[in-house]
Write a structure and sequence with these properties.
This protein has a domain of 39 residues. It is 49% helix and 0% strand. It is built from 4 helices and no strands. The longest helix is centred in the last third of the chain and has 20 residues. The protein is extended, with a radius of gyration of 17 Å. This is 3-oxoacyl-ACP synthase.
Length: 82
């Protein structure tokens, strides 16, 4: 397939049946990339249970939350650049 042909395929037409779900085993071996970029202070609201879970992971929980958000951001911005 050419890139133009791939771009023309609708997401609903893609067969993902051979791709396993990201279950607990996937996350057990996942690696966290910690970006080294300047940060901006801000006020945000999170679900209490989620915030407590990150805090329970120890020092640097805000940086880990940022890394998770960055991963999501990069995955989605790279899709729009294709």
């Amino acid at each position: 397939m050419t890139i133009a042909e791939m771009k023309a395929v609708k997401d609903s037409d893609i067969d993902f049946s051979d791709i396993p779900e990201a279950d607990a085993n996937f996350w057990a071996s996942a690696k966290l990339r910690m970006p080294d970029r300047p940060k901006t202070a801000t006020n945000v609201r999170y679900d209490s249970d989620m915030l407590e879970w990150f805090k329970a992971q120890g020092k640097g929980y805000q940086s880990r939350m940022n890394a998770v958000l960055r991963s999501f951001y990069e995955a989605h911005t790279s899709q729009t650049k294709r």
